Amino acid sequence: MSTKRLAVVCNYVLRPDRIGGMDRFFVAYDKAAKAKGYEVDWFFPDVLDKTFYEGVTVFSAEGNSSVEAFFLNYLEENGKMYSTLVTHFTELCTPFYKKAKHAGRIKNLIAVDHNPRPLNGFPLKKQLKNRLKGYLHHKAIDRFIGVSSYTARHIVKDLGKVVVRKTGVIYNGIDTSVFKKRAQHDLDSQGNVHFVVVSHLRESKGLQDLIDALALLKPDLQNNLHITIYGEGPLEEGLKQQAKDKAVDQLLTFKGSSSEIPTILADYEYLIQPTYMECFSLSILESLSANVPVITTTVGGNPEIIKEGENGFLFRPKDKNALANIISEVVTGQRGINRDTSLLIEKDYSLDRMVAEHINLLD
């Protein structure tokens, strides 16, 4: 019997301070693929720490090239052949796929799309380029997988109807067992509301709108809330300065990145995510798994998981007044979520379900 070999190419850096949902998926998927008789090799652009990936065969470009170029070079230098290639976080329908399929004698190539689209769509030049790429290179990819219905629709919109028959959806899932669950939705003894943000600090995440929204609140409301922000990124110092300029810096605490998010979330009443771009947010799934409702925007796959008044509240991206209104009504008690938000996640968005559906693509 010939050996089944699987290569997984991920444009994703392994970091010790960010052991998140995708890391747990990758490790669980590796175990499940091996149980199906596959030898599995993983390729990343950089590996800063692989402690969590013990037992996983990991190759790193060490930041010297793109992970796609690194993989093609590996194939050329080692002459290794793979029956299946799976990609995550890579650009779709580039020449890479045809080159990799030929060089690795790959029979089954699966491209998983996690990439969000711009709020106002791609400019015309980019739209035309995407459509041309789809026409020229779609045949090299056997399956396109979106992590939400939104993503799958946009794969077809971007690349054209030539890919519609081989495009499907596998929703992201999380390991609910690692999340500490908030026992109840009672406020602290002073009646204060503690919000949390878990986000990369860049413009597309919309945290500048959150700061502006806080400045719209009356002082007595400001005194009854606090927001803790976990994450880092290029906008951090700008956000801190904006908060000072708006005289709301006392309402915010910046904590940087943390690997303890699964146990931290349960200390808060609501997660706020004012993002402009999203496919299907793992942060939202994680917050709901911790029984912490979510305040977020109507972009991407967010409305596929957040149901207004049931497990969170939605507002249009960049609508600072709407965000301020939601925060105000939550603080005053006019709005609230009292049901257990974790039940839906355990039922429909588990890591086991996600892994099983991805493994099924291998056969």
UniProtKB/TrEMBL annotation:
What Gene Ontology molecular-function terms does this entry list? glycosyltransferase activity
Query: In this protein, which residues make up the domain named Glycosyltransferase subfamily 4-like N-terminal?
Result: 19-177
Identify the keywords attached in UniProt to this record, alphabetized.
Transferase
**What InterPro entries does the database record attribute to this sequence?**
Glyco_trans_1, Glyco_trans_4-like_N
Q: Which residues form the Glycosyl transferase family domain?
A: 184-334
Transferase: present as a keyword of the record? yes
Pfam families from the UniProt entry: Glyco_transf_4, Glycos_transf_1
The entry's protein name is: Glycosyltransferase involved in cell wall biosynthesis
